[in-house]
Amino acid sequence: MTFSEEVLMAYADDELDAPTRAAVDAAMVSDPGIAHRIARHRALRNRFNSAFDKILDEPVPARVLKVVHSEQGAPRKSNVTPLRQRQVRHWRWPQWTAVAASLMVGVIAGRLTLMRGENAGPVMTRGDRLLASGVLAAALSDQLASAQSAADPVRIGVSFRAKSGEYCRTFALRGAGGLAGLACRADDGWQLSVLARAESASGDGGTYRQAASSMPAAVVAAVGARMAGEPLDQHAEAAARGRHWQP
Amino acid sequence: MGSSSEDLRDRIIELLPRLRRFARSLARNAQDADDLVQITAERALARADQFRPEHSVAGWLFGILRNAWIDEGRSRRRRETLLEPEALAERVGDPAAGSDPELLCLQDALARLPEDQRLAVALVLIEGLSYKEAAAIMSVPVGTLTSRLARGREALQSMLSETPGGPP
Predict the structure, then answer these.
(1) Which of A15, A221, A204 is nearest to A102 (CA)?
(2) Whether residues B126 and B146 fall in one domain
(3) B67/A95 Cβ within 8 A
(4) pLDDT digits over B64-90, tens only?
(5) Residue A167 Cα, gap to closest chain B Cα (Å)
(6) Which residue from B minimizes the CA distance to A200?
(7) Which positions in chain B touch A61 (Cβ < 8 Å)?
(8) In terms of domains, do B138 and B73 share one?
(9) Do B24 and B88 fall within a single domain?
(10) Of A59, A109, A128, A222, which residue is most buried, by most CB within 10 angstroms?
(11) What is the ipTM of this complex?
(12) Domain count within chain B
């Protein structure tokens, strides 16, 4: 009797139903080649098992434990709160994330400004800097996270004071391929420090987009690196807008 | 949510070592793997209300980690094409890389498999899940899982038979 490699693999993994297993057992008696092939599958399994098992004995890094211990109670649905709960300031993304993010700014922004004419799109260049323009600039200056609707072309996320004093806000553009980023107030407008494609909602259920994790990792990391203290609550946000985002 | 949320938190803490092991079969770099575990814990706690108690917590968490890895993979591939020298430099500077040559050898072999075969191998051979559990995490029928696993294993056998140091 001959068996496919898949059947012998399943034998090695203890996944066969009783009749098939008995048939393999019986065939093995007269054909030592079958036992040899099964042994080969078992050896591979054991080799992976024992090498990776050592990871179980490693201490879990504090930054991972902190996530589980720091989140308290039920998460709220807003896009702002989970960022605070997640204590993004403690994230240690490898340095290349920031490098990659700044490269992505160039690539994506180049495409946006070319596509829409130098100053007509949501992003414009001034020297080697990127500034918000059009609907994005308007939303960053006027829109409050606590009072926005699904129809707004820009969704504002968190607002905060940077360590260097200026106000910064995260945003997501609807219908621009899901771009999101971080803008900080400069003398001549909102300067973009990170612009990245928002994570896709596909493959992970419809609620994904509502969660804070729709913020690209590069943006979350940039917020963590810049934020001084806590994000602004709705009163502080409104007060900052009233001062035209001047520190 | 109260006590059920606290139970979930405890279960996540218990499962962190296994999540780290699973993540290391997907990401070679230990830092990247722990980033995946961190994202998984965050997403699981943020979506605790979506967990169905009749399912296994481990399977649910593995599924979240798998999705995070696939999301991350898209941006990683972009980065790698842009940043190969830096990525290599980072790997050289990583104290975890090279600490265990056998583990590194197997991680390198896994990294050469297509995504779907790599997941099948990681869930069944490394995590020890049943075909049924692994298929559920990958959202495919058991037959599909079985053929991916078989192809992945064959590829690994031929890769690893070329390298010295394996078992006889």
Answers:
(1) A221
(2) yes
(3) no
(4) 999 999 888 766 655 544 444 444 444
(5) 27
(6) B71
(7) 34
(8) no
(9) yes
(10) A222
(11) 0.84
(12) 2
Contacts of B60 (CB under 8 A, 6+ apart): B44, B51
Tell me how crowded residue B78 is: count the other CB atoms within 10 A of its CB: 15
Chain A interface, mutation test: which of B62, B67, B75, B82, most A Cβ atoms within 10 Å?
A: B75
Q: Does residue B9 sit in the same domain as residue B31?
A: yes
Contact yes or no for A96 and B79 at CB 8 A: yes
- Among B50, B83, B150, beta carbon nearest to A96: B83
DSSP-based three-state secondary structure for B1 = coil
Q: Are residues B158 and B87 in the same domain?
A: no
Helix %, strand %, coil % for chain A, to 5?
50, 15, 35
**Residue at a domain's end among B47, B70, B97:** B97
With a pLDDT cut of 70, the percent of chain B lying above it is 77
Report, as an integer, the average pLDDT of B36-59: 88
pLDDT averaged over every residue in chain A = 74
The closest CB to that of B90, out of A47, A75, A94, belongs to A94
Residue A220 has a pLDDT of 76
Which is more confidently placed, A122 or A51? Answer: A51
For residues B47 and B90, membership in a common domain is answered with yes
Residue B1 to residue B8: CA distance in whole angstroms: 10
**d(Cα B18, Cα A40) in Å, to the nearest integer?**
26
Q: Residue A47: which of B106, B61, B134 has the closest Cα?
A: B106
DSSP A87-122: TGGG----THHHHHHHHHHHHHHHHHHHHH-TTTSS
Mean pLDDT value of segment B26-42: 90
Place of tokens 């609550």: A233
Option in A40, A55, A71 nearest B45 (CB): A71
What CATH number corresponds to the domain at position B1? 1.10.1740.10
Q: For residue A52, give the nearest of B24, B72, B82 by CB distance.
A: B24
Determine the structural domain holding residue B78 and report its residue range: 1-97
pLDDT tens across A164-186, in order?
899 999 988 876 556 788 999 99
B89 and B145 housed in the same domain: no
Spell out which residues of chain B touch residue A92, defining contact as CB-CB under 8 Å. Answer: 31
Query: Which of B97, B121, B142 is the C-terminal boundary of a domain?
Result: B97
Nearest chain B residue to A70 by CA: give it: B42
**Cα-based distances in Å from A184 to A147, A166, A174, A230, B135:** 20, 7, 20, 16, 46
**Whether residue B134 sits in one domain with residue B67:** no
